Amino acid sequence: MAANRAQADALRNQRADLNSRLSGTMAAAATVAVPAKLSIDFEQSIANVGAVSRASDEDMQRLTDTARQLGRDTMFSASQAAEGMQYLAMAGFSTDETIAVMPGMLNLAAAANTDLGATADIASDILTAFGLEAGKIGDVADILTKTFTTSNTDLTMLGETMKYVAPVAASLGMSLQETSAYAGAMANAGIKASQGGAVLRAAMLRVAAPPKASRDTLAQLTGLEGEELEKLESELAPRHPNWQSWA
Description:
By secondary structure, the chain is mainly α. 79% of the residues lie in helices and 0% in strands. 32% of the residues are buried.
């Protein structure tokens, strides 16, 4: 009996020792695997930047160093920074321009609480729609931030609005600042994202129409009437006093 108990105890001890070793091995493997995966993700992201931008070896090193630095100094990872660079490269930004505007893109993404890649995509699309130079991306970020922090919308919905209205607004000679103010006013009336863009586009296309026709069009597109329609009309009036606060 005593011999059997001793043998059983020995087996239990062997199992415990084996489990302990396995746990340690798995933990060590996980410790190595996580950084390895992060490194692979970053290398893939920065490779995508190179494929899109066709940057030289020297420029690729600069982009790589910048992405890694941003990953160390900000709330975003190096891979996320590289993703943002990819969208800027797709919009035609040079290496110098991309490096210069990345801090502004990170600030915009942080303020909007949005993915860095999506943020860069939205901002660069709007920049292109209004025919602005890459150096103006900081101004674009400031205007967008002011719009979604002072009206009932967010960056993603504002980007959807701009998809519809920006080309028409630009063709009519309107600035991004003016168009964003209109988008904010529409959002405050509960008309936002793609719906807000469609309504604004239609309204701008009828800008030369007689006042009653324009009012009827706005009522038909928004479904508003009475005081609610009048309030929206006053918000959209080009000489509304609130415009001064956007200057």
